[in-house]
Fold these 2 entries.
Entry 1:
Amino acid sequence: MSTLVVRELSKSFGRTTVLDRLDLTVPRGALAAVLGASGCGKTTLLRILAGFERADAGTVEADGHLIGSRQRHVPPEKRRIGIVPQEGALFPHLTVWNNVAFGLPRRGRAQRVREVLDLVGLVDLGRRMPHELSGGQQQRVALARALAPNPSLVLLDEPFNALDPGLRAEVRAEVRAVLRDAGATGVLVTHDQEEALSTADMVALLRGGHIVQAGTPRDVYTQPRDVTTAGFLGETVVLDGKTEDGRVVCPLGILRAHSNGEATNCPGTVVLRPEQLVLDPDSGVPAQVKDTQFQGHDTVARLCLAECGTEVNARLHAYPPPEVGSRVRVRVAGEVSFFPGTVEPPSTVG
Ligand SMILES: Nc1ncnc2c1ncn2[C@@H]1O[C@H](COP(=O)(O)OP(=O)(O)OP(=O)(O)O)[C@@H](O)[C@H]1O
């Protein structure tokens, strides 16, 4: 399995620039999630990686071999890339076994089909037709089919979209385990931040035609590069603040910030996650509970900070949840992000 290196990839359709000098490196055996809003160019990137589309500029290398550039275009069938499309796209008239066997060399075929069906836990269903499978099983067959020819890279195009939410988490975990067992290098494109954060070894955020931030799910979530990125990765609490003696001062108190250490008295924006807000009768700033929203595994409480009247959302695991109207104290667990300069409104990305 290979290391994927994409350099300065650009692609326009007419006057629309979709990819703009995009760089991405996926280490051997890792699964990278390319996360971006609808229409940001995720499928275009996958199609270029697969060789279905040619880039206007830039290079694609797999395991040190140049497979795509303006001068050199290795055709899709020679790239050793497996693709798991949205909704499986199995051949409806072929059995599971024949779907996986399709296109494999005759020699060793039966053994390879058995191996990959075993890998996805479906070796007993080889005689079934696709319509006799659940959505999750169909996606596992699609994965087996993609892995059967021993591809150097597996591309997954929003492969869990058609599954209902309960099944999605389960199939996601299974697919991840199968890719790991196969030692496969993978690129998963998705607009679903939870999917990206929970499934991948690295998350690469695609915005404005290029990767604006890449890193482990934990790093990109806890240390987003800007307010917009923070908002795209999950819910945020955004407050005005300023630096003071290596700390950040804001309506939630004096807080520790990630490395964004700035000179004292620098104004900026403080960003943290609602789950970092903890009710603690012994410390923190006073607040009043304005509203609560029961969400099963946790409760989102809207808190009005007593000193300034600013309202923030806290995701609480406290049981029972606090009463609306009650007076509490709230403190911040862990470090926050601080972005010096003009306050940027939180928004989702395009
Ligand atoms: N063949 C094409 N001709 C013209 N425009 C195209 C073509 N393919 C894609 N586009 C445009 O390029 C942009 C990116 O499309 P793409 O399908 O790559 O986005 P995406 O991030 O995969 O979106 P989604 O999440 O909605 O599937 C869109 O504006 C789309 O309309």
Entry 2:
Amino acid sequence: MTSKTPILQLEHLGMTFPGHPVFNDLNLTINRGEFWSIVGENGVGKTTLMRTILHQLRPTTGKVNYLPSVNAVQIGYVPQFRNIDSEYPLTIRDFVGLNLTGWKLPWLSRGERQRVEAMLKQTGLTKLANRPIGQASGGEKQKAYLAQALVERPNLLILDESTASLDPVTKTELLDLVQQINQTLDLTVLFVTHDIPLARRYTQQFLMLTPQGTEQGAIDQLTDQKVWRGEAEHV
Ligand SMILES: Nc1ncnc2c1ncn2[C@@H]1O[C@H](COP(=O)(O)OP(=O)(O)OP(=O)(O)O)[C@@H](O)[C@H]1O
């Protein structure tokens, strides 16, 4: 059995928007290579938690620690489906490599171009690589967002309801790829989802947010009863 190496630790984390507590005293340790689902009904605070983990929001209490140091954690983030203007001029290939350019050179090195091509292939986008991304279908756009996040070689990937608008085949294709990288390259994944069967199929652990508090455990402990109870309590 391999030993567990923490990559992310939430300590007594709490978030309150003015007059509106979202979560409180949340403690969680995520280890390298783990695949977590983050579940809970609409409005319970899943995206707020992800934005706090990304340091986009400052928690009201507690803290988010990247381990062993902030520099050791490279985060990839794939948001919920967002449409892209049909006139947007970048090709799918340029879009996938967009975040690789910038800080050293304004163009991609040969190695970076090869990484983009490999990622286009892995996400099944090679044949469409020259198509303007604005003209791609919803599923193709979402694959391009995933490819853009993965090409940066993150060691922590956050999928924030990224598969919600996709058909079952495309969902499976994307999550199969994420699972493959999770298993071969020890990628740690946080998968925010309302799709409990999908969570059971791909993830190993769950964090469930409810208005009363949080619960975490092995995915086989996420029973239907627990999910229904969590949702019913809020009605
Ligand atoms: N910047 C903000 N200021 C005030 N309230 C906010 C802000 N962002 C989110 N909220 C509120 O905090 C609560 C949690 O929102 P959040 O988007 O995190 O929920 P969620 O669990 O991701 O929901 P969903 O499943 O519908 O995407 C909601 O009531 C939302 O209206």
